[in-house]
Fold this protein.
Amino acid sequence: VEIIRTIEWMKQTARAARMSGHVIGLVPTMGALHDGHFSLIQAAKQRCSPVIATIFVNPAQFGPAEDLAKYPRSFEADCEALEKRGVDYLFAPTAEQIYPKGFSTYVTVEGLSSRLEGKSRPGHFRGVATIVLKLLEITQPHFAFFGRKDAQQERVIRTMAGDLNLDAEILACPIVREASGLALSSRNAYLSADQNKSALKLSRALLATKKEIEAGERNAVQLIRTVRDVLAGDPGLEVDYAEIVDADTFEPVMHLRLACYVLLAAKVGTTRLIDNALVEQVGEEFQVTV
Ligand code: AMP
């Protein structure tokens, strides 16, 4: 893997690859890489060459009371892992380069950015949309890969790409979980053994709704009641939201429809975790992917 530290060199490298007819794949990350990230890299490798991974802990998407300073960082190990997986370029710029003095242009995807994650984390999606637009400009990808773990983020980026007529096609990859069911996240590193047990309840709650949906339940209120029942009574877990939303608009639904998400956010100690299940109608049946 060739490590690229400057915007200029990354741009030149990407431009040269494009000019010679290569299909560029982009996998943006904040580092502390795990199998969730590696699944995106694998998807990118299947379609694209070169594959560009980025590691940038983006200050603009963290609130003032959030974990920017202590966000897990493991650059050396990340480089080794990217090398092993055949990633061609790692773009790892400094914050000073990305947000130089006087930086004042931000992208806001209205509506979508003010609900759910956006409501709990004001300014978060503005930071996300801004950095992703910058990374797309710098790396010029044909395809950019994002995880469904951050379903609303993926929707925000897809909306931005459509609204701004961006060239890159946005592709979403399934959630990767531990054998226990816990969705992989760099933030899992913060969890103690006890907190890990509490965190497991998120995927348990989603599996309970899956079972209920497969048994014929279609009512969102009832399904959310089930979710809350699983999450209730654990003093180590504080639910932020549990909602069933349309997968396109992220507006709440009363009954299951063509495609929706069961979305969960909760705090375990000071660690904020999110998880979701995708519900898709296939003929008369609903298929639930946890
Ligand atoms: P992050 O480094 O947390 O900003 O994540 C970088 C990318 O990896 C985002 O597109 C995430 O949605 C994706 N990602 C993170 N965790 C997972 C996971 N468990 N499964 C699939 N994708 C993931």
User: Anything to note?
Assistant: The first helix runs from residue 7 to 19. Residues 29-30, 36-37, 39-40, 146-147, 149-150, 173, 175-176, 183-186 surround adenosine monophosphate (CB under 6 Å).
